[in-house]
Amino acid sequence: MNAIRIELSTNKKQKPEVSELGFGKYYTDHMVILDYDASIGWHDARVVPYQPITLDPAAKVFHYGQTVFEGLKAYLTADGPIRLFRPRKNFERLNRSNERLSIPHLDEELALEALKLLILTDREWIPSAEGTSLYIRPFIIATEAALGVNPSTQYKFMIIMSPVGSYYAEGIHPVKIFVESEYVRAVKGGVGNAKTAGNYAAGLKAQENATKQGSSQVLWLDGVHRKYIEEVGSMNVFFNINGTIVTPALNGSILDGITRDSIIQLLKHWNIPVEERALSIDEIVEAHGNGSLVEAFGTGTAAVISPIGELLWLGHKLSINNGETGELSAKLYDNLTGIQKGTVEDPFGWILTLDDREATGVSAVNAQSHKS
Amino acid sequence: MNAIRIELSTNKKQKPEVSELGFGKYYTDHMVILDYDASIGWHDARVVPYQPITLDPAAKVFHYGQTVFEGLKAYLTADGPIRLFRPRKNFERLNRSNERLSIPHLDEELALEALKLLILTDREWIPSAEGTSLYIRPFIIATEAALGVNPSTQYKFMIIMSPVGSYYAEGIHPVKIFVESEYVRAVKGGVGNAKTAGNYAAGLKAQENATKQGSSQVLWLDGVHRKYIEEVGSMNVFFNINGTIVTPALNGSILDGITRDSIIQLLKHWNIPVEERALSIDEIVEAHGNGSLVEAFGTGTAAVISPIGELLWLGHKLSINNGETGELSAKLYDNLTGIQKGTVEDPFGWILTLDDREATGVSAVNAQSHKS
Ligand SMILES: Cc1ncc(COP(=O)(O)O)c(C=O)c1O
Ligand SMILES: Cc1ncc(COP(=O)(O)O)c(C=O)c1O
């Protein structure tokens, strides 16, 4: 049985101004920690003051990168309850990543209960201004101090939270994307469909180059043929070709984004044709040339929808929709953020609300218990 | 200017018995730490008591795996000086890994001086029994506490050391290797030629499967054609085909092993034909079929030479040299370990000796100074 204990901070931090939030710079007063040891399994779920972690320098995470993570958000409006967007999907995906990285399965309901307790404990940290949210980062690291290359016998699961500002300072606007021809992020048979640290390390160099070229993100091509479109930095990608919305199929080397899945469901709900299939950069260049490439956008938890105004491919600039936000991108953005904030009806049951008043009684006593 | 300061441990650990050493389980009394901050560069090189490191849970290494490492060994014989095998090669490779992972360049001579000082400080930890050595693990981790996906502005370089036992309890003997057909370790354009954590995380699952099938390691095939031989777990791989020694060329997705380079030099020195080229698993199966596959072996710092007695490929067992250690494998092992231990002449200038007597005077005073 796993009870979640709470140790409250006696030294609360000053909260930043909304205008200073940015992304992932400030952390709330508390965090969740859960330990794993091969001999006892996951144990000692707790909400504790946000604190440094102390590890042996031989801890496996430092040497062999055995780690997975997730990213999701909690939203607050002036009068509404706290709202979480499809949080179970994140813990399900965390376990799929765990499976790939040989990390032991985590009880998803326990993780969700711990997250709820953490959010209620730090509810004053959730910003409510337009475009703001509380970014939530669950993650697992291998902590065993041993240099043999094999799965760790010890892990820590943690959740930290960061109030984040509006992704779009002046309303949704298009980005420039660099189509990468030299570097590869992931390949079939690798770990590209897991949310694990190494995938992001592998992308840093290309991201730096893209920035130098004036683009804000990298569009990855597949590592085998070097021509099929994969995904963008931390987003999946969609193209509107003559009214049909096309996105790369889940092929084993891209992340199955929860925003991606939500967009596909919304499009189907609206009877807009959507295709998940292999999509080459040549097809995009051709569609651009003959005028059938109407719109392009990225999807992910951070920006929700990120319209693409330009692709930079082998030195050529492909302007899309005159570099402006497309109609469908705007509609999807409004609807999805509306569902997240509670201003648009949620026909899919995607929102999990936390009653803020529960918070008053937050204590170790009303923390729920779970089978491990 | 960078002086290396020393803080000696007042609480020395008990040294393990030679029979208990294993690999990477015990750590010496001291470690090296060097900090990096974007505003001051690398600074404060120090030898300090082996100690836990304390990091913010948002430190980039936990989330985005921005980290590199190295592995080398120091050897001691009963009467000889302390011997390091080609240590500059490791710090050069560390910097090539740094370049790929967007980690700032490290002064290789400073790193080497810090290592020497550490070894002299912990010289009593170097085992001298047959087959034993002191394994040295330099590594760098990204420590900035920020969730944006971009290179860290802060890092820690560390060196930890572990006395390790003989890789071969009863003399050199062949291993069984599983040729992987499902999972891929790395692909051209990725980070396969860098010594970075994510590559090892990506290999854990395949390694677990190989172990279940009775093999001790995985032989990786390339991620594009899924047929060209890459490398083995933490070793490069060589095949003796009718007297010509063939090893995969450095193609961007495998590590340029220092043992691999040493073996190639040794073979050339002996006028044995050696080829670095693309080598498919089909060619190996054919050579096995027609009797021209004479020997196969892996090369790496840990085992030096690891003869391969059997390949398991798509359910077929390919026995090599009757599952016994080949003539050339044995000769290479004897010569390379002989050079390392000082019992065989070193015609290449590979050995850097540390005069044990220097140790008597180890102090912050005689630590050398360096430009940063
Ligand atoms: C590599 C990658 N692709 C896609 C996404 C989008 O996934 P989601 O919509 O679940 O945020 C993310 C970010 O989470 C990501 O890191
Ligand atoms: C992936 C990989 N390949 C090859 C090697 C062999 O390299 P070296 O001979 O420098 O130890 C290692 C180990 O260091 C390794 O980790």
Describe the protein's architecture and organization:
2 copies of one chain form a homodimer. In chain A, helix 2 packs across helix 3. In chain A, a hairpin with a 3-residue loop joins strand 3 and strand 4. Helices cover 23% and strands 30% of the residues of chain A. By secondary structure, the first copy, chain A, is α+β, with helices and mostly antiparallel strands. The longest helix of chain A has 16 residues. The radius of gyration of chain A is 21 Å and the shape is globular. Chain A folds into 2 domains: 185 residues, 2-Layer Sandwich (D-amino Acid Aminotransferase, Chain A, domain 1), CATH 3.30.470.10; 167 residues, D-amino Acid Aminotransferase, subunit A, domain 2 (D-amino Acid Aminotransferase, Chain A, domain 2, Alpha-Beta Barrel), CATH 3.20.10. In chain A, strands 2, 3, 4, 6, 7, 8, 9, 10 and 20 form a 9-stranded mixed β-sheet that branches. The C terminus of chain A is likely disordered. Chains A and B meet through strand 5, helix 1, strand 9, strand 10 and helix 4 of A and strand 5, helix 1, strand 9, strand 10 and helix 4 of B. Strand 5 of chain A pairs antiparallel with strand 5 of chain B, so a sheet runs across the interface. The site of one pyridoxal-5'-phosphate has 13 residues of chain B, from helix 5 and strand 17. Chains A, B: Belongs to the class-IV pyridoxal-phosphate-dependent aminotransferase family. Chains A, B: Its EC number is 2.6.1.42. Chains A, B: It holds the Pfam family Aminotran_4. Chains A, B: This is Branched-chain-amino-acid aminotransferase. Chains A, B: One of its GO terms (biological process) is amino acid biosynthetic process.
